[in-house]
Amino acid sequence: MRNSRNLHTTPNTIPGTNGGPSINLRVPGAGDHDALEQLSQRVGQSRPSGSLMIAERGGDVIAAVPLDGGPALAEDTVEAASAVAVLRFRIEQLHHGHLWTGRLSSHRGVLAA
Predict the structure, then answer these.
(1) Which residues lie closer than 8 Å to 46 by C-beta, 6 or more apart?
(2) Rounded Cα distance, 89 and 101, in Å
(3) What is the pTM of this model?
(4) In angstroms, rounded to a whole number, what is the distance separating the alpha carbons of residues 66 and 74?
(5) Each residue of 25-46: b (16+ CB within 10 Å) or e?
(6) Per-residue pLDDT for the chain (113 aa), expressed as one digit of tens each?
(7) Which regions of the chain does DSSP assign to beta strands (E)?
(8) CA distance 27 to 29
(9) What whole-number distance in Å separates Cα of residue 106 and Cα of residue 32?
(10) d(CA 97, CA 60)
(11) For residue 98, what pLDDT is reported?
(12) DSSP tag of 100
């Protein structure tokens, strides 16, 4: 995949809804293994294999999406569903060689889904 180095920049943030905590989108690090396992147990699904992008809110991982496609692992919440949509959008951009500026304000329609 082109521009994979762009995945390791600072987290990109979706503003929280109704004054709630923001959601950070990023590539998981070595310290996220337990958080991904906890998410898997909470939602009753197995963890996706391969490289992922994740969404975290308040320090908790709420969604994980495989970079190479496949089903997402996510909480059953509006915030997690929105995060999955944005993660998929971002992954598609990366596959087409687009850089991420870190600003999602122009994509608020995706977040309102």
Answers:
(1) 40, 73
(2) 14
(3) 0.73
(4) 12
(5) bbbbeeebeebbeebbeeeeee
(6) 344 444 444 457 777 777 778 889 999 988 899 999 999 999 999 998 889 999 999 889 999 999 988 999 999 998 899 999 999 998 888 877 765 454 443 333 333 33
(7) 12-14, 23-26, 52-57, 60-66, 73-74
(8) 7
(9) 29
(10) 29
(11) 60
(12) P
Burial 78-106 (b: 16+ CB within 10 A, else e): ebbbbbbbbbbebbeebeeeeeeeeebee
Residues 70/72/73/76 CA torsion (nearest 10 deg): -150
The identity of residue 56, as a single letter, is E
Q: Return d(Cα 28, Cα 54) in angstroms, integer.
A: 6
Q: How much helix, strand and coil, in percent to the nearest 5, is found in the chain?
A: 40, 20, 40
Angle (CA) 14-44-53 rounded to 5° is: 35
